[in-house]
Amino acid sequence: MPVGTVATVKGVPQDLLEELGVQILLGNTYHLYLRPGVETVRRMGGLHRFMSWERSILTDSGGFQVFSLNDLRKVSEEGVTFRSHLDGSSHFFSPESAMAAQIGLGADIIMAFDECTEFPADRERVRSSMELTLRWAARSKRYFEEHKSEVPWRTDANVGTAALGCPAERSSAVALSQDQTAATAELRSAGQPRAAVPTQALFGIVQGGMDRELRRESALRTVEIGFAGYAIGGLSVGEPREVTREIVASTLEHLPKDAPRYLMGVGTPEEIALYARMGVDMMDCVLPTRAARHGLLFTSEGKISIKQARFAEDDGSLDPACGCRVCRRYSRAYLRHLYASNELLAQVLNTIHNVSFYLDTMRAVRHSI
Amino acid sequence: MPVGTVATVKGVPQDLLEELGVQILLGNTYHLYLRPGVETVRRMGGLHRFMSWERSILTDSGGFQVFSLNDLRKVSEEGVTFRSHLDGSSHFFSPESAMAAQIGLGADIIMAFDECTEFPADRERVRSSMELTLRWAARSKRYFEEHKSEVPWRTDANVGTAALGCPAERSSAVALSQDQTAATAELRSAGQPRAAVPTQALFGIVQGGMDRELRRESALRTVEIGFAGYAIGGLSVGEPREVTREIVASTLEHLPKDAPRYLMGVGTPEEIALYARMGVDMMDCVLPTRAARHGLLFTSEGKISIKQARFAEDDGSLDPACGCRVCRRYSRAYLRHLYASNELLAQVLNTIHNVSFYLDTMRAVRHSI
Question: How many other CB atoms are there within 10 angstroms of residue B72's CB atom?
Fold first, then answer.
């Protein structure tokens, strides 16, 4: 899932994302809650209609940003008090308010509110954090069950499809109808036939630090609460890669194979292929888009830094093995010039290529499955 | 002509410019000379191939930027010494070196090196500046006639077409072949059948400040030197709009109707329609692209500032009368959110719309002709 933090994959128009074959985007609840605000998005008909994106969207719970962007946060049983990174204003997220926000945004898949345990942490800290996440998971589910009918597109005239009749459909009906199948299939695998049951799919999040025993307990007790899908959180927080791999493997054993299994915040092209082989169904990462904006491009010949002088007069395409509109049309020399000149188009083209490269990687993974 | 200062219309991929119907772009010799450098562009086959733009390109002489971006410039009979706005390094442009740079860049239309007379200026200053521009015009033409065969695409395998076989053609052959006609026609009107005579078209520039008599003399003596087209320079430099209009009208009288007449650096949609009615064939302006990046959007209902809070929940399209991909797909509320959140996509979408609006204006003008 490419990351579209505030209802946009930075620099790339939605129709180009459709052309690239993006089936689902991730939106960040924390950022959308601050700007433009949940009520605005709700009144505009929900995220799909607001950003004119007819395909699937997943929103995170806001928990990770609260923990990663806030040094001054105060965690209590009730929830988390934090300060906006934009203006320093004080805000409060609880499992209930995080659910209310995600229901108001109206993504197809939403996440239970969790505490992302820091690394390193001693066993007692990891256990108490895991227990808090489990209590918050139960509260998240309870609130969701009581309020799931409040999604903006449910009360909308077009019951059943988030963005039916939104401009997107008019502007590229063919591309969308082709994709409907894929998107619907993806959601059905999450137990939510889109057309039939117009509610969101709530996923639970497994914590437990780097402790296989606690991960096992967290997985079993999260499954016991019962969710449409299960995420593995609290990884890629600074631990060695082999530890990540070991924890992912041992956690997957305890998650049902007939529900989507989502590894949060991962990773490089090699890693997503590896984790998919291990049984992970979904992943998200800012790497392809953020790296692109810093001139780091993924190619079939490895990662390259386009700012390097050696590309100044290289008239070859960025990645001869890539068929994206950037590699088909522009030379490395031109991309290097755009980046060296700090031109907007550098970030646009670099992002299109990196997202294309990631989606090609996932297509290859699906094909091999 | 949309402005593509350093070989890019800021934020807009070339294939979208083609889709919008852009037939010719303006590149700034001063900026391209500093970055990526003329020799790099020449070795890459010229501007068309370097930026993968198969349609027409015009480069200015660098004169205007030297005068507008350099307070420390030193003007002599020989030329102008100036400092780079990037690193303060010292450089020198003469009519000969400005021609050499433009021949190396290889645009379809290039401009004689002129002195843009400041405003206000007394009659003696305006006359001496005009005389200098006339001497530089003769030197520009002489150098061009002796070196015009040195264009990068002339010595290229694909004689006759600047970017034949460049990736652009492969990636969107249909759109391009449709446009060939228009582009070729435009060049033929400049006396340069593209396929038959693969050299550039050199335009002269009329100066003379706000003095009708000096403008008349400058026009007649520039025509006497003889160019493929004629530009009116030194306007939109702070004078009242009615003065601009009066000087344009009186200067046009003395320029041949069978050669392209190019008014440099204007203007608003109303102005370009007005000047076209007066007989101007070509115009360029940074207004549509620069304004877009500042959230100022041109619509059939007038100019709007998309940052305004009143658009925060406006789900109408930006301009109901506009058929561009932005107006077809996105709401004012979404565009306002992107701008308020300082998102890259705001600049991309705003620019696409403004360029589309300007091209629609020119299409209406052509239709009325």
Answer: 9
